[in-house]
Every structure is written in structure tokens, then in C-alpha cells.
Amino acid sequence: MDVFRALLHDASRQDGAAHRALRLRTDGWALGPLVVGDDRLTGLDPDVDLSVVTSGGAGSVAALPGRTAGLRLVAVETVLRDLDDLPGNAGRVVAAAAGLPDDVEVFVGLPAGTGLVEAVEVVEAAGLRGRITVGPGAARLLSALVESDLPFKATGLGPDPVGPYGLLGLLMAVEALVDGADPEDADALLADVDAHRAVTGLAGWDEATQARVRRRLRAVDCDDPATTLDALARAGLL
Hints:
The protein has 238 residues and is α/β, with parallel strands linked by helices. The protein is built from ten helices and eight strands.
């Protein structure tokens, strides 16, 4: 299914060689870049696509072009930290991201805090992406991102793709929100996934439905990509 193409970001903390081996699998097309912290930039394989998670704020984002010279930087991830002024913090990240190459995606973590809706608007207007942690109550923020048409990345998923707060539940929740479901209903899909319903439901998605979901859900972090790929393959979804 094309909905999985490059969806899984490799957050396993493995090295470049192991990541390349996964990409060479017959289902490796479902894998996106290797996720690394900005404290792990030394000695990285220059032939591996990287999504770099910053350890600081806007200053860390601004410093990345110099720190990643010679590396294949395809995405940057940062989190808003000024909970008393999320829109202002978002504006500073936007300004810092202007110094990155045009083809680098920037994912901005959006925690609960003062001015969250306004911060979402700042991020969306600048053409950046959102970043959220999946867990209890996450569907309310998911709904806000879908309504604002802000593409986003999800982190913190459960280890089982068909378990609570797992990958398939997230896909179903996003599809439901796109179709106008209440956040409470989407939360139920995230928390209580029926494996048979999830697999058969996703298998029936046409290309238009898959495209609508991926227009919002750009990526998910995957701590054990090999196991996730195996599970999706067994379910007949890859």
C-alpha cells in the first residue's frame, strides 16, 4: 500500500550500515530516514538520509547547516519549549529554519501551552510541519492539525503496530478525522485497536484515501523498524 511509502522513520538508534540493510529489503520502500540526535553527528555515513532532532531551541536549528556539511540532511525536528509564548517560540524557529536548504522538511513539536492554536498557524503559514507525541488524549491535537491542514509527524507510538496507540490505529484515527469524526471517536480508535478491523479497513483504502491521509501524516517514528515491517508484511499491507 502506497500509504506506507517512506512513512517509517528509523528511530532505532542503529548505525548507518544496519539502516542501509533495512532499506535494501523488498519492503524497505516503507522506510524513511535514519533519526539521530544532534549529539550524534560525528562519524555518520554520508550516504544515509538523516532526520536530525535538535537538543536546543531555534539556535540549534540555525546551527545545523554548518554542523551537517557533507551529510544527507533531509529533515530537522525541534520542539517548542517556551510554554508561556508558543507563537513567539514558533516564530523564532521559523526564522532559524529559513537558513536550511529548501528541500529539508522541518517538524516542529507542539506541546500544550499558551497560544497553541496561534503557534500552529505560525508553523502552517511558514510551510513547516507539526510534530506530536501519540498517547491518551492525542486525538484533540490531531484534530486541530487536520483542521488547520498542517502536515505532521507522530512520535511515541506503541511497539505493536496493531496494539494500543500503534501505527494502524493512528492511520485509522487520521482518516476518521479527515472525514469529520469527533476527537473522542478518534481517541477510541487509537486506544482500542481491533486488529482484524484495522487490517481489513486499511486494505480497502483506495488511492485517494491513502493520499488524503498521507497529505496530513507525513511520518512516524519507529523504534524497531524490522519488526514493524515484518508485522505489516504478515498482514498483507506492504
